Structure formats: C-alpha cells, structure tokens
Amino acid sequence: MARKVIDLECILPPDETGTFRSAHRIWMRSADRLPDDPLFHACALAYMSDTQTGSAPVVAAGRGYEAFMMTSLDHALHFHRHVRADEWLLVDFQPASVTNGRGMTQGTIHSHTGVLGATVQQELLMRELQAGRASHQGGTPERL
Question: 1-40: buried (b, 16+ CB within 10 Å) or exposed (e) per residue?
C-alpha cells in the first residue's frame, strides 16, 4: 500500500502584520540557573534548538503531531551572539518547505531583550500515519 505524501510546495504568505499563519513561536529557557561560562549556554541552546522543530511543518500541513511519524534528517545551528539559555528566549519557527514527505524548518532564537542569538534549520522526514494510528514520539503535545 502506498503512503500518502504531504505536499505543500507553496507556504502561504505572511498576513498584513508580517506574521506567517503557519509559524510556531514559543518562549523557552533552562529550568536551572547555568554557570556564567558561555560554553554551557551554547550547549544548552543547541539542545533546546532541537525541540519543537517539527511544529512549523506540522502546522503548515494543517494537521497535528499525532498524524505523523517524524525524525530529524539534519540540524544546523548558527551562533551569532551570546545569549543566556537560562533567561527567556523567543524561538520562532517557520516552515520553509513541506513536500515529498519532508519538512524543512527555519528558525530564529532571540533573547528577551531582542538580541538575535542564533538561527536554526532542520530537515525532517515526515510520514503520515494511517488512520487510527497515533504517534507517541517525544515532543508531542501529550508528552510536554
């Protein structure tokens, strides 16, 4: 049986305020205070940047996490300025492409003061699950 592959070659343009309908914005921070060493913050930011990257392609596909099995194909994080991972960070994910069973997310990570700390890109393999099957992978809303 052939699997149905999602294909949204053209993501909708932003609305009049410049906001993409399919964007996923979240605030996150380390629950614990981290040492002042910037390396600790870079490592924490790398870990944090890998969470919720599937959210933007899922929203763009018009479905929920439970409709897909997803796994990361690649992940790139570019550090621009030092930001503390134990202070609030605004993470803004945009779907760059959702086609041929893959989703590409692009994102920015800003400090609570507006400083751009990093940008992230992640490509995901996205397989639509058959009706009646549910995904129970980490990062799904029922596990957050």
Answer: eeeeebebeebeeeeeeeebebbbbeebebeeebeeeeee
Q: What's the whole-number average pLDDT of the chain?
A: 79
pTM value is 0.73
Percent of the chain whose pLDDT exceeds 70: 76
Give the closest residue to 107 by CA, choosing from 8, 20, 13, 9.
20
8 A C-beta contact, residue 87 and residue 65: no
Choose between 9 and 53: higher pLDDT.
53
